[in-house]
Write a structure and sequence with these properties.
Shape: globular
CATH class: Alpha Beta
Number of domains: 1
Order of helices and strands: EHEHEHEHHEHHHEHHEHEH
Largest sheet: 8 strands, parallel
CATH superfamily: Aldolase class I
Number of strands: 8
Structural class: alpha/beta
Length: about 260
Amino acid sequence: MEGTMRTPIIAGNWKLNKTISEAVALTTALKALVVDATGVEIIVAPSFTALAAVSDSIAASNIHLAAQDVYSEDSGAFTGEVSAPMLKDVGCDYVIIGHSERRQFFGETNESVNQKTKAALAHDLKPIICVGEQLEEREAGQTEAVIKSHVTGGIAGLSAADLLSCVIAYEPVWAIGTGKTATPAQAQEVHNFIRGLLTKAYSAEVASQICIQYGGSVKPENTAELIAQPDVDGALVGGASLEAESFAQIVQNVQ
């Protein structure tokens, strides 16, 4: 964080896991473990069905609520979708947009990420915009081209004030759930590239305030070394966020 005021953000993306009772049990345990955490923003992202119960569970705690996706329209004949006003109503502060699994399995594009980001911002939800390359893209030397496409496409048309409400999450797809982790140097290289893109699109002052998370097989053992990098401002945690103890240890390792 050298010379900046960026607060690290640790977000747990639970993906397709946890019934309502399991979700409440997890947050109940987590609350007790992170009650004294300072200098870090803590977020959990349950599935839609558990949002209301988790919102109640974490009320008056230092844990914030995120959804895993949002639709670009506020209402209408869009069966199966959930809108930004609905997420705000249930207590969400953040929403994950453009996760690699959404891109890979559900047809998410840079354009739809951009539309969803604008919808979230219109309702005072903070987007966590995910970007990242596949293994074959990295091996082909296309990492920077892919990242540039994801970042510039996702933030197209946003004002500087809009961008300041956003979080960028770099998730090398080849390191998600594979046990592989980008080395701290690899993570820093891409995070620095992302901040450079934001500097060109806005200004160094704006770019210096944007939190850029790392996501890809984040565990308690590798968090501190990743967060020590100057442009790595937190973590988007998958599997390790499904257990209160491991997620709390990650939070503690960034303080």
